[in-house]
Amino acid sequence: MTDHSLDENVDDLMPDLDGDAGDYPQDDYDEADYDGGQEDLAARRSLRRVAGMRTELEDVTEVEYRQLRLERVVLVSVWTSGTQEDADNAMAELKLLAETAGSEVLAGLVQRRSHVDPATYIGRGKVEEVAEMVRATGADTVICDGELEPAQLRNLEDRVKVKVVDRTALILDIFAQHAKSAEGKAQVELAQLQYLNQRLRGWGGNLSRQAGGRAAGGAGIGGRGPGETKIETDRRRIHTRIAQLRRKLREMDATREGKRAERRRNQVPSVAIVGYTNAGKSSLLNRLTGAGVLVEDALFATLDPTTRRSETADGRVYTLTDTVGFVRHLPHDLVEAFRSTLEESSQADLLVHVVDASDPDPEGQIGAVRTVLAEIGAAQVPELLVLNKADAADETTILALRANHPDAVVVSARTGAGLDELRAIIEQRLPQPEVRITALVPYERGDLVDRIHKTAVIDSLEHTADGTLVSARVMPALADELAAFARD
């Protein structure tokens, strides 16, 4: 996975500055082809535009898979705190989100305010500037770097005369495009419906009130009726669909919990790979296990968690899980909808926190990820910080990060640098078997011997006439099961 730095300077955009489990042993794949065939990525890019099928004067013969017609957007952000560099980074990230959603960014506008305007987000004067920019550039969408209240959304659309979306709607749209599994699609739909439920709009003045007789300007016959009921009908349908999705997700949660319980019963340690979106989590999983997970230089390229089996140098088995990426101000509805998926992180034995060391603000990424981890109850899980993309990062930046985080590991998932050290540290940080036991296990209890091989540190093993004589350090639960066969 490569660095997602922008080709253009962000300043060019801102004219006014006053945004399931599988078994893949580590040695069974070709190191040079750790990303696999990437069929999913090929499918994403397979759609081609037919020349001449548009009304614009220019024609584009090839676009990204999600762009039947590129939306032309203007970005708007309110700078309330932080430095100029923070404002530039926020706008650069909003630009990347907009492009990932399938749009062409034409311009950007940032306003410095102590707080957002409660009526229009940016204030009356800036609304007129945005409207002029929309007319001058021919944009058809305005994207705001914040979560807009329904009234703010309505007021902006009424004044700029084009579609207005906020950061939450933009991220939800990206998730809807990239969700593949049934669970992922249901989670995204649930988040979208919860977001939409508070932002339903009626039919305006035409159905704004009940009318009868000579009321409402003499409407008379044909004007009587229940008034505006469509919005209530829509809201009721949304509530019904939300209930159906939650019921469906509870059934899927039971399946996921069954898999977790099986791993816990077998005492298989779990490692969750977490981090900011596009930090290289999927690339790292591919390098460590040969999983072949889709890798793309885009935000939120993979949403569905992928779990793969790996082994330590002494033969103990553990699992590695690639989780959904985080982002600054991750929408609350998404956190709620993806809670069952994010629980993979809160129930892990170790978090491998991947950071894009080549990003302009890696410390900001670390803070954003830890904020989300605290929300889902994973703040207390042991963390191993991994500085990825060392091949593209500035040496000064890496030195500064190492100074602030002395225990961090510097790697490059693209070149493979530092991965041997990372594997060794992960093995050291995994739960270690504590109970030393010597047992003569009967041959009919081969299941216990198998678990000893997978989870214990074996000192000696001998096959005798009466069974398998093994001396090892095991987990407490396995020691209880072996107590009946213990020998001095």
Provide key terms for this protein.
488 residues, 6-stranded mixed sheet, 4-stranded parallel sheet, 16 helices, 13 strands, disordered N terminus
Secondary structure topology:
Elements: H1 39-44, E1 71-79, H2 84-100, E2 103-112, H3 124-137, E3 141-144, H4 150-160, E4 163-166, H5 167-178, H6 182-197, H7 215-218, H8 230-265, E5 270-275, H9 281-289, E6 306-311, E7 317-322, H10 332-337, H11 339-346, E8 350-356, H12 362-375, E9 383-388, H13 395-404, E10 409-410, H14 419-429, E11 435-441, H15 446-455, E12 457-463, E13 468-474, H16 476-482
Parallel strand pairs: 1-2, 1-3, 3-4, 5-7, 5-8, 8-9, 9-10
Antiparallel strand pairs: 6-7, 11-13, 12-13
Secondary-structure element order, N to C: HEHEHEHEHHHHEHEEHHEHEHEHEHEEH
Strand order of the largest sheet: 6-7-5-8-9-10
Q: Uncertain spans, ≥5 residues at pLDDT below 50?
A: 1-29, 47-68, 203-218
Mean pLDDT across the residues is 79
Beta content? 15-25%
C-alpha termini separation? 54 Å
Structural class: alpha/beta
Count of extended strands: 13
Helix content: 25-40%
Helix run count: 16
Shape type: elongated
What is the CA-based Rg, rounded? Answer: 27 Å
**Major pleated sheet:** 6 strands, mixed
